[in-house]
Amino acid sequence: MSALSLAVRDSSTMLRRNLLHARRYPSMTLNLLLTPIMLLLLFVYVFGGVMSAGIGGGGADRSDYIAYLVPGLLIMTIGSTVIGAAISVSMDMTEGLIARFRTMAVYRGSVLVGHVVGSVLQVLASLVLVGAIAVAIGFRSRDATALEWLAAFGLIALFALALTWIAVGMGMASPNPEAASNMATPLILLPLISSAFVPIDAIPGWFQPIAEYQPFTPVIETLRGLLLGSEIDSNGWIAMAWCVGLTALGYRWSTALFNRDPK
Length: 263
Prior knowledge:
By secondary structure, the chain is mainly α. It has helices at residues 3-24, 27-45, 48-55, 62-81, 83-94, 97-103, 109-136, 146-173, 177-183, 186-192, 208-212, 216-228, 235-259. The protein has one domain (3-259). Helix 7 (109-136) packs across helix 8 and helix 8 runs antiparallel to helix 12 (216-228). The longest helix has 28 residues, at 109-136. The protein starts with a helix and ends with a helix.
């Protein structure tokens, strides 16, 4: 059997292990999903009237704000769901499973690949759920073509991959699952201070650079452009640069921690 075949076989085994673990313990994924779902319902039904009037200059209705909000909430769902990968990896570290896998005759990268692919699949399933709720309460895309929908899906998958690699690195670097959860908190906080809920120009001037120069804002604005027809401008290239950069950083960080000699 070739080295590639062995790598694929071992990675598939580790992926199946992680999916079975997620199926047997679904409470963590459901708890992480609760934040974007509750925010979606809160901002639509409690603040939707006021927020839509602000965005539309006093003449908008709630459906306008739903259209504005949903792309941001979808990206926020990615940030909240991948925290599960950090916790899962940290649990494997503290229970000694990672150390055991290091000594086994398996493809070394398969352990991390299993966590990453399993987390990305969970993220996509979570996005389907949040998206279904959004459609049920009135979200509609504005004449997006099949190519734009495909590009939107690709952007979401790539951003999920990037954040998952970062989360895996956080899990590898954390001494316990509680620390991994705390270390991954910025993945939930950053979308809150992005353009997910209000436009950048509605944020106080001193705070605008924080909201603008971070990975979530260009990804959210690119997704809005693809689904709603708004201007993407340079956000598309910036979003791709963030995705590629975070993926490379997370991969190097995770593999370096995985390959180092245990103390």
